[in-house]
């Protein structure tokens, strides 16, 4: 595979079609063709060549060679180049959204929203990059110290399939605008999209400043082991993030990672339970639950529980009847989600709606509401990453707060409450990177957050990411004698 040419060769009929949404029939180490199929229908999307070892080494070497020239370009000029990349991305939004739709099953309108979010992120970093400054300190008379942010070097960016454009361009944009060069490995579940996204973005920059490679986890492992890689930025599962952190401990690479979450939603007494149920449905079922910050467990106060659960079940039923939910990304993911649901039912929970694998093609799974859930159930302890809303009734806000915080993950949490006191308690006591009060998604433009525990480390977006991707040099100037 040549990194500066089209690597996607769509075919009309495959020799052997693997399971829906899967990648098979090839080896990343040896290269080879891999078939990618549509998780909605099982139909072939196309074939993609995985990057070989030799090509991967050559790619990193080229990106390393491009670093000295790119880092010398002024921050303002780098910002203008990033703004140009945003324009090119906007021009390609339909093509990229369609590839996302076909490879991951994400509904087309949501896929378009993801591309547009990526455009906004590039514009934001184009503006923030030139304003990323150091500070000054006065020492003795006639002396001064100042700090200068400098690029870390070659950044390996490893990104997921569930929001493949917005996540990728956020990390890539922050790395490039601060003077780093980038090797990007998108998920093997959407390699056509990753390849085309790389071509669109790379066309805005000097040659080899940004290079994309294709492959699975073994490709990523070889990429981060390359001695020229100074920084690894990863969004994906906690298991993969932990392996990256261990590998980086040997190479000395700096690691920024946003990993899995098991986000809790606390529904306090005094809120409108139907309004709360609508918020819960948005948080649990958007993108078929395949979002890092999707709500994975719900603690509802007994005073509003009956009406809340009834309304949540009604909303889930509406989604199932309308066909508004897209499929899960592949059969493997559907099986993992269903296993958690079955385990919960077998250990005492009740599926009031959903909970069954539907007949027909693709890897669809219905919006599911579980009641009678308890802390020891797998569905309450582990990230489900599917359209499942497990509900546990609590007797007080304090109980809900305690259960919400008793978790090995620490990405974010949601609190729906009319009480300012309870909102402040949640903000203080929840060990997560983001606490959202009376809202389930969103946030101020340019906001930064730092996940905790198994959910990762370092600022994964916002102005804080610019700090993560630069080194601080201190310069001390004294008076000559």
TrEMBL record:
CDD domains: ALDH. Residues 32-475 form the Aldehyde dehydrogenase domain. SUPFAM superfamilies: ALDH-like (SSF53720). InterPro entries: Ald_DH/histidinol_DH, Ald_DH_C, Ald_DH_N, Aldehyde_DH_dom. Keywords: Oxidoreductase. This is Acyl-CoA reductase-like NAD-dependent aldehyde dehydrogenase. Pfam families: Aldedh. One of its GO terms (molecular function) is oxidoreductase activity, acting on the aldehyde or oxo group of donors, NAD or NADP as acceptor. It comes from the Bacteria.
């Amino acid at each position: 595979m040549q990194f500066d040419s089209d690597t996607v060769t769509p075919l009309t009929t495959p020799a052997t079609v693997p399971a829906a949404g899967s990648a098979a029939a090839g080896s990343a180490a040896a290269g080879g063709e891999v078939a990618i199929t549509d998780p909605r229908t099982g139909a072939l999307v196309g074939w993609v060549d995985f990057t070989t070892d030799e090509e991967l080494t050559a790619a990193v070497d080229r990106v390393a060679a491009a670093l000295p020239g790119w880092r010398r370009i002024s921050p303002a000029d780098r910002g203008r180049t990033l703004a140009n990349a945003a324009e090119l991305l906007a021009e390609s939004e339909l093509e990229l959204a369609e590839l996302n739709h076909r490879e991951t099953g994400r509904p087309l309108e949501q896929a378009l929203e993801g591309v547009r979010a990526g455009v906004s992120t590039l514009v934001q970093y184009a503006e923030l990059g030139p304003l990323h400054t150091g500070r000054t300190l006065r020492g003795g008379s006639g002396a001064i110290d100042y700090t200068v942010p400098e690029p870390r070097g070659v950044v390996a960016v490893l990104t997921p399939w569930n929001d493949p454009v917005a996540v990728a361009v956020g990390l890539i944009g922050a790395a490039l605008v601060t003077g780093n060069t980038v090797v990007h490995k998108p998920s093997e579940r959407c390699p056509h999209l990753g390849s085309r996204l790389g071509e669109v973005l790379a066309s805005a920059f000097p040659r080899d400043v940004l290079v994309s490679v294709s492959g699975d986890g073994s490709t990523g492992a070889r990429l981060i082991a390359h001695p020229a890689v100074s920084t690894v930025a990863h969004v994906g599962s906690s298991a993969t993030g932990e392996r990256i952190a261990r590998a980086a401990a040997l190479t000395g690479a700096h690691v920024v990672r946003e990993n899995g979450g098991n986000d809790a939603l606390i529904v306090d007494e005094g809120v409108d339970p139907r309004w709360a149920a609508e918020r819960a449905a948005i948080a649990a079922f958007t993108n078929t639950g395949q979002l890092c910050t999707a709500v994975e467990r719900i603690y509802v106060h007994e005073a509003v529980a009956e009406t809340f659960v009834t309304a949540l079940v009604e909303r889930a039923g509406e989604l199932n009847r309308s066909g508004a939910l897209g499929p899960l990304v592949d059969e493997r993911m559907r099986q993992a989600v269903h296993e958690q649901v079955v385990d919960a039912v077998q250990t005492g929970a009740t599926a009031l709606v959903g909970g069954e694998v539907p007949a027909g093609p693709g890897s669809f799974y219905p919006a599911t509401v579980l009641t009678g859930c308890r802390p020891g159930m797998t569905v309450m302890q582990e990230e489900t990453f599917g359209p499942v809303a497990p509900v546990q009734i609590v007797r007080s806000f304090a109980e809900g707060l305690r259960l919400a915080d008793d978790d090995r993950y620490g990405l974010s949490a949601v609190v729906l409450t009319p009480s300012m006191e309870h909102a402040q308690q949640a903000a203080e006591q929840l060990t997560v990177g983001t606490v959202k009060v009376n809202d389930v998604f969103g946030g101020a433009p340019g906001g930064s957050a730092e996940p905790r525990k198994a959910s990762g480390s370092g600022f994964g977006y916002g102005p804080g990411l610019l700090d993560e991707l630069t080194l601080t040099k201190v310069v001390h100037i004294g008076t000559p004698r």
